[in-house]
Amino acid sequence: MFSLSEVMPDFKYGVRKFADSLKLYLQNNNAPPITGSAKFELTILRSGEIENVSLILTDIDDKNSIEIIEKALKGLSSQWLPGKQNGFLVCVYRRIGLNFSDKGILVTLFKH
After folding, report:
1. Are the CB atoms for 94 and 105 separated by under 8 Å?
2. Domain ranges of the chain
3. What is the mean pLDDT of each run of 10 residues along the chain (112 residues)?
4. What distance in Å separates the CA atoms of residue 12 and residue 69, rounded to the nearest whole number?
5. What SS3 class is residue 57?
6. In the list 11, 65, 82, 111, which could disulfide-bond 18, CB 3.0-4.6 Å?
7. Dihedral pair phi/psi, residue 42, rounded to 5°
8. Can you spell out the DSSP letters for 61-90?
């Protein structure tokens, strides 16, 4: 398991597409309107699947909203490209910040 890799996991179709997919996922699962920010740590497996989604920091008070966001992140596993080290696909920890507002969702990827 890597905290940093030569090629870090990234969104397959870009940040905007990931944010749009997350918004659509939340709408399709009847999530209540969410306002605030949350930072998660997750593991991107060699297959690109997401595992071990953990909340690090949030100002969102509604626990149900946090659970829905965690499920959404797992549900969007197909949106990730895995990390690489020495030409091999590797499992990598990644931190992601999500800022929800009436203007949409801002997604930020952090280095570990």
Report:
1. no
2. 10-110
3. 94 93 92 94 95 95 92 91 97 96 93 70
4. 19
5. strand
6. 11
7. -145, 165
8. --HHHHHHHHHHHHHTGGGEEPEEETTEEE
